[in-house]
Structures are given as structure tokens and as C-alpha cells.
Design a protein that fits this description.
It is built from 12 helices and 8 strands. The protein is of the alpha/beta class. The termini are far apart.
Length: 324
Amino acid sequence: MNAYPPPRVSVASATERQGSAREGALDISFEFFPPKTPDAERRLWQAITALAPLRPRFVSVTYGADGGTRERTHATVVRILRDTELTPAAHLTCVGATRDEIDAIAHRYWQAGVRHIVALRGDPPGGVGARYEPHPGGYAYAADLVAGLRRVADFEISVAAFPEVHPEAASAEADLDNLKRKLDAGARRAITQFFFDPAVYLRFLERVRAAGITAPIVPGIFLISNFRRTVEFARKCNATIPDWLTRMFAGLDDDPANRALVAAAAAAEQCRILQAHGVREFHFYPEPRRVDDGRVPHAAGAGTSVGRRGRRKHGDTARGPGLT
């Protein structure tokens, strides 16, 4: 039985308006955390080895709320570029650095051969929910960061979108205007905050297209490991936990095997419904302890339908650091 309420969006509408991936193919990507310990580093590289056969479009590496993971993020991204066939994307935020410092980081990435940046405002040092204050002399918001990165080099830039509205946005309309500013500044795609009801994404996509935004809006799919922790995080992020999802996880706190099965089934069904509405791109957010979980992308068909992409070599793009 389908646990999701039927979205009021036609298959043709979603297909025509999203339509960036090849018909019948899936584009997938994964998000990783830079490892903090030798054990975490071992798990990360096991995950990269396990997920590489799925041939993701890219794999992104996050950046700490206060910029504290800056060097670990850089080292992880560069190692992925050097030692694997995967295409890395480095997260970069406005938090905790001046414009000159952020520009220097971007230069380092470009010189290392990294061509894709996920540009985010970033969470304040106090974490999600704390008051955000722009860094003195820094980029104030993500749209400013995108514009700055475009001045540094011809990066491919992804930004964030919020189907259920950013917690700090004045309104849904203001949040949509902010997304448009980021894309107008030079971003190529937006990746959404996680959500669990496909209708939430499809309604958001309708609003985005009605606002004249044509860039790909890639749904972010969260792979649950610890449901209680997910509920707490979702509350801070303004992401709704549907009642049916709560019922699915009821009684499984001390049953990790069945909890993992339920999590995979829920996410796979989410992907299946979105595919039925024409969606062909997915960005997966694994929990840190489950970064090697490829069951959902496999179930969605990623293992067979995505073609391998060659990476651009360093220097392939005509526009380099410092050129305008």
C-alpha cells in the first residue's frame, strides 16, 4: 500500500519542467562528511569504494558550521580527485572567514583541479537555530558567495533550496526570491533540503517553475539510520516528519536490522514516486555511520542506468582563477 498522499502534480508537468537528465537515466550524487578520526576515515573510504560502481555524477564533502573542517574538507576532496574516478564537489560557506580568505580557498581548489563547489551560507557556529551574523569582511549570504566564486573561476556551482522554507526566511515568497538570487548570481542547480513526503517536493517544484526558475532542482533524499536523531534534526531544519513515517519506525529503537530495512524501503518508495513524476536526479544524504548504504540508489535503478562521465582535467576550462 502506498503510504504517501497522492501529489496534485501531473506526471507530464513535472517531467517537462525538471527535464535535465536523459530519458530513462538517473543522475545521482552523494554527500560525505570529512572524517574526524582514523576509524571514520577508514569507513569513508570503504563507502567510496562501495558506492563508486553506482557511478554518481559527483560526491560532495561538507564543511563545518564554523569552518572548522576546512582543511579536512580540502584534503578529502583532493584525495577523491587524485585517487578515484569520482568527481568531487567541495562545500564552501560564508561562515568564519573574510572574502579574501574564501577566495583563497577557492583558488586552492581550482589549482588542485576541483571544478565543482556547493556554495552555502552555512550554519552559525552555534549550530542550526542559532542566530546568524555575517562575518566581518566576509560574504554575507550564499548569493554573494556564488557571485564571488564566479569571479574567481568558472566553477560549476550548486546551491541549496528549501521545499518547506528555510527556518529563518520571512516567508515562502522571500525564500523563493533568495533561491532565484543564488541562481541568477551564477549557480547551475539547486539541491533541496531533505524531505520525506514526495508531494512536498512536487508542490515546491511547481512554485519554482511558476516563478520562472528553470534550473534543475535536485531532491535531497535522507537515508535514516537513527530515527529519533532524525526527528530532532528535522525539527531544527523545518522539515516535516509525516505521521506514517513515525508509525513505520515505531518500536524499532532497539532493532537496528529492521530499522535499516524500514529506512531503505521508505527512501526507495520516495524515489519511486518521484521517478513516476518525471524526476531523474537525486542527491543522497547518508547518516555518517551509514555512508556506504547503496541499497536505495540500487533500488531506484542507479546501478544500471547512469553512464560514466569523464572528469575535466585541470586546465580544460578557459576561464581560470583571477580572470573575469
